[in-house]
Amino acid sequence: MKALVLRGLLLLLSLFLAVQLWIFGALVWWKYQPVERSMFMHRYEWTGQTPALRHQWVDSAQISNHLKRALIAGEDGRFMDHDGFDWVGIQAALAKNEKKGRVVAGGSTISQQLSKNLFLWNERSYIRKAQEFVITWMMEQLWSKDRILTVYLNSIEFGKGIYGAEAAARHYYGTSAAQLSAQQAARLAGLVPNPVYYQAHPQDRNLRHRTRIIRRNMHTAQIP
């Protein structure tokens, strides 16, 4: 019986290490190569959703600095200062959730969001959060801040089936990601927390309020 349990534990450990090795290899490859599909994009296609997925990889130089500043201002104001985990933001989120009596803030950094988008799933669980922690740590060791932000901007969802800055700029404004204005960038960044809903409700009060705050804070956002 003990031998069977030990064998099972060794099998689980081997599987865990194999997954980490695969993730490490993917991160090394994506350090230099475009990320054509994230796990979230794969799931969208595998489940046969409509409309068809829209995504086009663009390099950092082809993305407006306005959008870079807007996403940092909206999602992770200390992006350039932390090592993947914003402990100040996490403490603030916990305090806010405790005050409200429910989960209203997550405190996830851009690096953590990207780890989830590339490799994981959206449902909350301790297993997913632990794996997200490991991936984020590896990513921060292997990639520069500019690479993390570039992949993030190419991977996040801006609406139903709309992934990445280029597809979003084309869909909403008929222009390229490089040509986005400051106001357009703030609006796109405002979509990120709930892109499908905000796409269907463009006049939502929370979206308008969030866009104004992002636009006001963009000038203080540090970018790589």
Explain this structure.
This protein is mainly α and 224 residues long. It is built from eleven helices and two strands, in the order H-H-H-H-H-H-H-E-E-H-H-H-H. It has helices at residues 2-30, 39-46, 65-75, 87-100, 110-119, 126-142, 145-155, 165-173, 182-191, 195-200, 205-217, and strands at residues 157-159, 162-163. Strands 1-2 form a two-stranded antiparallel ribbon. Strand 1 (157-159) and strand 2 form a beta hairpin. It is globular and about 65 Å long. The chain starts with a helix and ends in a 7-residue tail after the last helix. The mean pLDDT is 91.
Quick structural gist:
This protein is 62% helix and 2% strand. It has 224 residues and is mostly helical. It starts with a helix and ends in a 7-residue tail after the last helix.
Q: Layout of SSEs?
A:
Layout: H1 2-30, H2 39-46, H3 65-75, H4 87-100, H5 110-119, H6 126-142, H7 145-155, E1 157-159, E2 162-163, H8 165-173, H9 182-191, H10 195-200, H11 205-217
Helix pairs in contact: 1-6, 3-9, 3-11, 5-6, 5-7, 9-11
Labels describing this entry:
224 residues; mainly alpha; two-stranded antiparallel ribbon; 11 helices
The percent range for helix content is: 55-70%
User: Which spans have pLDDT < 50 for at least 5 consecutive residues?
Assistant: none
The share of residues in extended strands comes to: under 5%
Order of secondary-structure elements: HHHHHHHEEHHHH
* Amino-to-carboxy terminus distance: 55 Å
Largest sheet, spatial ordering of strands: 1-2
Question: What value does the Rg take, in angstroms?
Answer: 19 Å
Q: Estimate the global geometry from the Cα principal axes.
A: globular
SSE class? mainly alpha
Let me know the number of strands: 2
Q: Taking all residues together, what is the mean pLDDT? A: 91
Question: Tally the helices: what do you get?
Answer: 11
Main sheet overview: 2 strands, antiparallel
